[in-house]
Write a sequence for this structure.
C-alpha cells in the first residue's frame, strides 16, 4: 500500500482512471495492410473516439503522433520491433519506449515476460527507467501469472493478457479470448487488469469485464476490415 | 424462360455470376464519418478484396471511381441523393444511374419500391432505360414481395432486401436481418436474391445463404469502425 502513496503511483492512477470499465480500441495495421499508415490510423482513432472508446492502443511513433493529433483520448503506446537476438517484440528496449513517449503516448505498453530482451536489460530495470526518465505508467503485456506477479513487483502500473496464446510459435493461438487468465490476474494482482487478445464480439467484451477486467482492448474486430472480411468469407465457405 | 435467352439477360448473367455464394462488402461512409471519402473507401475496397470478397457495393461516383481503380472486383454502384419531393434516395433518377455507370460500376442498385420517384418516372421505365442506354444489370433494392414481383416483371436482374425496415420512418428498424424476406424472395422470384441489411456476424451471413440468398452484402460490420465501436461500448454499459 505504501507504493500507492508515492507520486509515481498517483500519476499512474490519473492516467489509468479514465479507462475504467471502458473500451480501448487498438488501431494497428501492418505494412501489408491496405489501411497501413498514419492517415488511416488517425481516421480509425477518430472513429473510435466518436464511437465512445475511452482510450486507444497504437503502435509506432508515426501512428501515435497521428492519433494524438486526431483525438484527445489517452493513448497506450507501443513500438513493435523485431531484433534478431530476442523473441520480445513489443517495446523491447528503452529506445522504443522513449520514442513512444515523445510521440505523445500517455501509457507505455511493453512485453513484460521474463524472456531475454535484445539488450539484456531485465524488465524490472526497464520499468524503473521508464518511470524515472519518461514519467509515464507502464502496461505490462503478459501471458501467465508468474511473469505478472514479477511485473507487478517490478512496478508495472497495470497488466494485460495481450500475449496469451502468442508465446510458443509452434502452438497456434486459440480462437477464444483467454478470460480464465483475466480472472486469475484479477484475483491475484493488485494492479488493474486489461483484457486483450481475440475479443471479437461485444458479448465477449462484456464477459471480460464480468471476469474482472478493468478495461477491454479490441483491435481486429473494429479496425481491421481485411481480417473481418476473412471471417465472413470463411463462414460462407468455398 | 424466353427472357433468359436475350442478350440483355446473358450479359446480366455474366455480371452476376461471379457473386454467387459470396460476400459483397459495402464500402460507404457518410460525410460525418471519419472515414468519409475516396481515399478511405479505396482502402476499404482493397481490404475487402484482399480478404476474399467477391464484390463491392459503393455509393457515389467519386467512391466508385476510387474503388474501381483500387480493385478488379465487380462493383454494385448506387448514388444516394435526397430530393425534396420524394422518399426515394437510392439512385432515384436516371441521372444518378448514369453517373454511377460512368464511374465504373458493373451493376446498378436502385430503390425499386413503388414509391413516387423525384421525377415521377415509374421504376419499370427507369430499369428499361438503364438496360437500353447504359447496358448494365439492375439490382432492385426492396422491402417487400409485391414490389419485388413488380420489379422482376419490370426486368430487374436481381433483387435485394436492402430496404426492409427502412420504409416507415416512424418505426425503428429491428436489430436482426430480415431472413424471412430472403426466404420469401427466394421462393417466389426467379431472379437471384441478395441478402442485405443488418447482417452483423459471419453466422448471420451463413444463415442468409441457407435461407436462399444468392449472395450476401455486409457493410457496417466490416467497414464502419465507428458503428462497430458503438456496439462494443453499448455492451460494456455506462
Amino acid at each position: 500500500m505504501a507504493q500507492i502513496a508515492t507520486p509515481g503511483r498517483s500519476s499512474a492512477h490519473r492516467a489509468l482512471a479514465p479507462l475504467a470499465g471502458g473500451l480501448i480500441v487498438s488501431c494497428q495495421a501492418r505494412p501489408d495492410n491496405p489501411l497501413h499508415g498514419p492517415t488511416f490510423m488517425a481516421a480509425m482513432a477518430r472513429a473510435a473516439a466518436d464511437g465512445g472508446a475511452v482510450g486507444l492502443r497504437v503502435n509506432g511513433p508515426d501512428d501515435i503522433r497521428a492519433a494524438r493529433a486526431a483525438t484527445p483520448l489517452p493513448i497506450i503506446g507501443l513500438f513493435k520491433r523485431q531484433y534478431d537476438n530476442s523473441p520480445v517484440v513489443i517495446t523491447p528496449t528503452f529506445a522504443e519506449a522513449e520514442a513512444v513517449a515523445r510521440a505523445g503516448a500517455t501509457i507505455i505498453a511493453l512485453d513484460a515476460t521474463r524472456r531475454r530482451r535484445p539488450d539484456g536489460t531485465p524488465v524490472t530495470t526497464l520499468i524503473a527507467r521508464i518511470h524515472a526518465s519518461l514519467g509515464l505508467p507502464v502496461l505490462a503485456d503478459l501471458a501467465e501469472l508468474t511473469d505478472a506477479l514479477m511485473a507487478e513487483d517490478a512496478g508495472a502500473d497495470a497488466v494485460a493478457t495481450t500475449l496469451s496464446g502468442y508465446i510458443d510459435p509452434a502452438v497456434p493461438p486459440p480462437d477464444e479470448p483467454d478470460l480464465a487468465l483475466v480472472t486469475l490476474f484479477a484475483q491475484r494482482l493488485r494492479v488493474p487488469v486489461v483484457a486483450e487478445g481475440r475479443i471479437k464480439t461485444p458479448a465477449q467484451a462484456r464477459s471480460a469485464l464480468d471476469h474482472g477486467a478493468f478495461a477491454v482492448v479490441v483491435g481486429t474486430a473494429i479496425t481491421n476490415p481485411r481480417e473481418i472480411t476473412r471471417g465472413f468469407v470463411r463462414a460462407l465457405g468455398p
Notes: Confidence is low (pLDDT under 50) at residues 1-7 of chain A.
